[in-house]
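Study this chain:
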Amino acid sequence: MTLKEKVAIEIIKNLHNRGFEAYFAGGCVRDRLRGVEPKDFDIATSAAPEAVQKIFSKTIPVGVQFGVVMVIEQEMPFEVATFRTEGNYRDGRHPSSVQFATLEEDARRRDFTVNGLYYDIKTQKVIDWVGGEKDLKSKIIRTIGDADQRFTEDHLRMMRAIRFACQLGFEIEEKTQTAIQKNSNFIEKVSPERIRDELTKTLTSAQPTRGIRLLDETGLLIHFLPEIEKMKGVEQPCEYHPEGDVYVHTLMLLDGLKNAPIELAMGCLLHDVAKPDTFVRASDRIRFHGHDVLGAELSEKICKRLTFSNAQTELICALVKEHLRFKDASKMKLSTLKRFLSLDRFDLHLELHRLDCLASHKNLDAYQFCKQKWEELKALPPPPLKLVTGKDLIGLGLKPGPEFSEIIRAVEDNILEGTIKNRDEALQFVKALISKEEK
């Protein structure tokens, strides 16, 4: 038993001692029945939020209006929610009102049967009002009650159904999936932040390709990522891409991922996003000139639309922009190669390239070359690139201007090539460069 679970049990016992009902609820019960250690322990109780806040010394009123209080014990957060029923969902996400209720009523207002389970620490038994245990054994995602009603109440539940299917490796029950298809346009009413969170959990699951397929088949994907739809049917040169069109290739790339970082997953999903816009058939040969650069621009727009952080956006766009450079790595001069290998999170660049190759021509020569050179570079101390500054150039009689960056770049290239090893050699190089330009 983990420390977090022990603390959660103490919270439940504390509520019991004050005369309230309290149970483990939702995902932690589901995961424990699956033999998986829960990450979080949510608690459902008959105690009103005000009572919870009085009982525990440190709380955060994260959703008091919905009966939810965050209890902080030993620096760990625990969501404690009062049994409740919910009024109409006016905005497709939040109920207009809540009423405190019984445990059974609390169960019947939840989203999916496998999430509607409770565990009683007194009897050490699962409480199941909604058939969740049966669906858990059958590995099925099914809404509690009418599927149309559940999805019109809270539109994000449609993406949650797909996310749970991919995270748990479950099938979506037929009526539930049909209801998602029927109501898919409602996803446009959900905030980009919420969509991003569910997409992230889906893409970083063990089944990202299945997630994209389900999002596509249910009609959800086109509403927030229409760029993926455009990939379908876009031909590729068969000598490099015998696997098929751009969409097929992209899904094959995602097939190689399992619980990957979101930046890598998005980089894989978007690496060829500009191919539909750069498709050219010339002399019976298909080309996609500049799809790497345009792809990075499109990726930036997509990431901003989905409200990814600036750091995430920068890395995702870099993965897209740089993915074609591997094929020329063995021909690069040493300074260019070292700069390429020094890209932030080059391990992710490497992995995207490996998956790109395996999803097409399967030639890993460039991957092996770059991997070896990268490992060799990591083993060396970083070169002292800042041997010459703008102040030095002014001291040599130059006026600040665009050529400053060109000169400093030339110095750095020679340092990376190994032809300049110290500050004196760097200054001599600059003096020679100035003398040559003056002639």
The chain is about 50% helix and 10% strand. The longest strand covers residues 76-82. The first helix runs from residue 3 to 17.
